[in-house]
Design goal:
With about 120 residues, the chain is an all-alpha fold. The chain is built from eight helices and no strands. The longest helix is centred in the N-terminal third of the chain and has 20 residues, at about 25-45.
Length: about 120
C-alpha cells in the first residue's frame, strides 16, 4: 500500500482561475487575494499540527480534535503542503497527466498559455 500524498508529487488540488480581462483590470484584487492565501500557507508552515487543528476545528464540527491533529500530522510527515503558491510547470504537467489518464482531458494546454505565477511570486517574498 502506498500514500498518494507521498508518491504523487505536488498535485495542485486547489487552483484559482480568472479571465485575463479581470486580471488585467483588477491586479490589486488578485494580489490581495493571493497574499491572503500565502498568509495561510505561512501559518501552516510556522505552527504545529495541534495548533492548526485547534484553529480549523470549528470548520469540522463532526471531527474530534485528536482526529484532526492526526490528519494534519500525516500531511506534515508526507510534506503535503508547499511553502508557497507558485504553480510550477512540473505540477501542471502532473495534473494534466492525471486528468488525461482519467479520460477527463480532451487535449493538453501549454503551461504558458494558462498559468501566471507573478502574483504568487510577489506574495511569497
Amino acid at each position: 500500500m502506498a500514500s498518494l500524498g507521498e508518491d504523487s508529487g505536488y498535485v495542485p488540488y486547489t487552483a484559482f482561475s480568472a479571465k485575463q480581462s479581470y486580471i488585467e483590470a483588477n491586479p490589486d484584487v488578485i494580489q490581495s487575494f493571493t497574499n491572503a492565501l500565502q498568509k495561510g500557507m505561512n501559518y501552516v508552515s510556522s505552527h504545529t499540527p495541534e495548533e492548526i487543528a485547534k484553529v480549523i476545528q470549528p470548520q469540522f464540527e463532526e471531527t474530534d480534535l485528536e482526529t484532526l491533529t492526526t490528519i494534519i500530522t500525516r500531511y506534515y510527515e508526507q510534506d503535503t503542503w508547499k511553502d508557497n503558491l507558485i504553480f510550477e510547470e512540473e505540477s501542471f504537467t502532473l495534473l494534466q497527466n492525471i486528468l488525461e489518464e482519467a479520460g477527463e482531458l480532451p487535449e493538453r494546454v501549454p503551461y504558458a498559455d494558462l498559468v501566471t505565477t507573478e502574483f504568487a511570486e510577489k506574495a511569497s517574498k
